[in-house]
Amino acid sequence: MNKIFTSITSDFEFTGNVKKDSYDLLIKHGRFVIAEHTLRVVAKARSLAAKYGIDEEAAELAALLHDIGGVYPNSERLQIAELLGLKVLKEEKELPLILHQKISKVMAKDIFGITDKTVLDAIGCHTTLRPQATQMDMLIFISDKLEWDKKGIPPYSAEVEEALSISLEAAAFKFIKYQLKDREKLAVVHPWLKEAFEDLKSKINE
């Protein structure tokens, strides 16, 4: 395990059960909201995986670990990302919150031993998506947005759920379109998000 992660794992006893260990690690570091959000995302991801014929176990793994980087507070994420040698974009320096997706991907591989590239890639872009997104990428992205970590029902929920009756592409596009509609309210617009939007737009002929 990368020594960078020693500070968050040194006194933690891993059981080998990813569901238990990921939840308990978040709880140990006081990330109660993220832990509960994660369980809801897992349920949604499994449901969507069944609907679209995607590997449910892989979807659950990606959902379980998508926010594991949240053990690090926003104030530490830029430093951790740099120590891990990750490429940090200008927008991520401005809003380090976004870096948790990249950190989570490394943690999933290094701490939890995940080797499935499809799972790791979905974790690594679950906040912003990316161009040429896979079905798993979009599944985790949408699950995360529909089962958000705030109270109440997301204002875009009905639109995105309706789009899911068409395809994952349509649903992902609908969410990003909603988000970019009030672009001035966004702290930053991540380049992956913009590229994903244009890519999806061309694919669904919007």
TrEMBL record:
Single GO MF annotation: hydrolase activity
**What is a single Pfam family found in this protein's UniProt entry?**
HD
> What keywords tag this UniProt record?
Hydrolase, Metal-binding, Nucleotide-binding, Nucleotidyltransferase, Transferase
Q: Which residues form the HD domain?
A: 34-149
Checking InterPro entries in the record gives: Diverse_Catalytic_Enzymes (IPR051094), HD_domain (IPR006674), HDIG_dom (IPR006675), YqeK (IPR005249)
Q: Which SUPFAM superfamilies does this chain map to?
A: HD-domain/PDEase-like
Under the heading NCBIfam families, the entry gives: bis(5'-nucleosyl)-tetraphosphatase (symmetrical) YqeK, HDIG
Recorded hits in PANTHER family, A to Z, give: BIS(5'-NUCLEOSYL)-TETRAPHOSPHATASE, SYMMETRICAL (PTHR35795:SF1), SLR1885 PROTEIN (PTHR35795)
Protein name from the UniProt record:
Putative nicotinate-nucleotide adenylyltransferase
Q: Which organism is it from?
A: Clostridium oryzae
